[in-house]
Amino acid sequence: xxxxxxxxxxxxxxxxxxxxxxxxxxxxxxxxxxxxxxxxxxxxxxxxxxxxxxxxxxxxxxxxxxxxxxxxxxxxxxxxxxxxxxxxxxxxxxxxxxxxxxxxxxxxxxxxxxxxxxxxxxxxxxxxxxxxxxxxxxxxxxxxxxxxxxxxxxxxxxxxxxxxxxxxxxxxxxxxxxxxxxxxxxxxxxxxxxxxxxxxxxxxxxxxxxxxxxxxxxxxxxxxxxxxxxxxxxxxxxxxxxxxxxxxxxxxxxxxxxxxxxxxxxxxxxxxxxxxxxxxxxxxxxxxxxxxxxxxxxxxxxxxxxxxxxxxxxxxxxxxxxxxxxxxxxxxxxxxxxxxxxxxxxxxxxxxxxxxxxxxxxxxxxxxxxxxxxxxxxxxxxxxxxxxxxxxxxxxxxxxxxxxxxxxxxxxxxxxxxxxxxxxxxxxxxxxxxxxxxxxxxxxxxxxxxxxxxxxxxxxxxxxxxxxxxxxxxxxxxxxxxxxxxxxxxxxxxxxxxxxxxxxxxxxxxxxxxxxxxxxxxx
Length: 523
Known about the structure:
Strand content: 15-25%
Structural class: alpha+beta
Number of strands: 20
């Protein structure tokens, strides 16, 4: 399936197979075979002592606006694959620039090195822990380490494929790990008889973990393979995890106490939040938010409903007038929300704008705070960020995405988060129909194809559009443009979020200097 899709979307694709002393070649151009077969077989183009397959392709520029691969994404995927296969060596060569780049990826420490890399800029609570085992014909490999942070970062892989939405292997690991820690906490007298067990979120507070399994017959939900669905994977991961971590903790009591200490800290924060009722997450279904700003829709069918998070009262007012009240809800927010990457959990839950969004979505918040996140309770199929097409608007979108990624990642993983794409210009020719232009490239193309005089209106903000224009360009499902927010590389997503939104300033400055030439400035 993968090669056929690549072939269909490429200007050309060439495949060379080295085996049995010969090099065979197959070649396609825009999806059609061009290599002539010899006696029904692929032609031999040379002799070799090597074995292997080489695939070369070029994205079709008649299909894609951009055909240049971003080196960082390719390198990140290669590095990730090297961690998952410690005996594998991958060579990366980029000869496009003035100075060719050559990198060799080889990680003999495997996923243990992966954990060290993920936590390289964090304060560890203990040394990384690694274990490996096999059950029911499934090979299970895992490594974990706790750091002094609130977030958990648990990554799941099946047959080297990253499963963004997790799946049964992660369920088996998480459930068993939580059970074992609760058992130890009671044996050590940390949890008394009257105390309730630690929740899964308590136990995983500060955890970074990588779980990689090799399954002979994996079954995924969807073609993108974002979620593993095999029930035997849960059993195998659960058995190996239960056996191996008990064996490890029995011999490493100090590490066990450090892990339980992280769970204790999380439980205390959770209980204090529940006691103070700062989350205010128990409002009646489909109620207005505490500020009375949410203009809800009339439909109660979540599959048909969508909510627009709009920057400012002015744009919010226009959006409320322009929307289709049957299925579109409008939630104005006041300027820039809290940067959750820098804030403590109590400040996050005390923030008025964040509480308003949590209450509007109806699916809870994170896990273990009196109203655990449940994607099935989401009231809107689409959550659409609608901000101005300027630097401030981009910053607001980034702050909202950071909130969703850190505390409601399922919203992104299951395809519910979008970014509205309002036009930058409106071209009004002296003769002919008016046209909305969504970026500078569209404006350049318009100027080349329209020789008659025209008036150009530049939209600085959503508030400059009247209700009719806002409906036509940004709200109408038939004519609007939106970007679906996706996460393809969890490791890179977590690193970039921490880098750009975290507390450390020097690394952010270096990033800005290194990528200054990539910036699209609106000046």
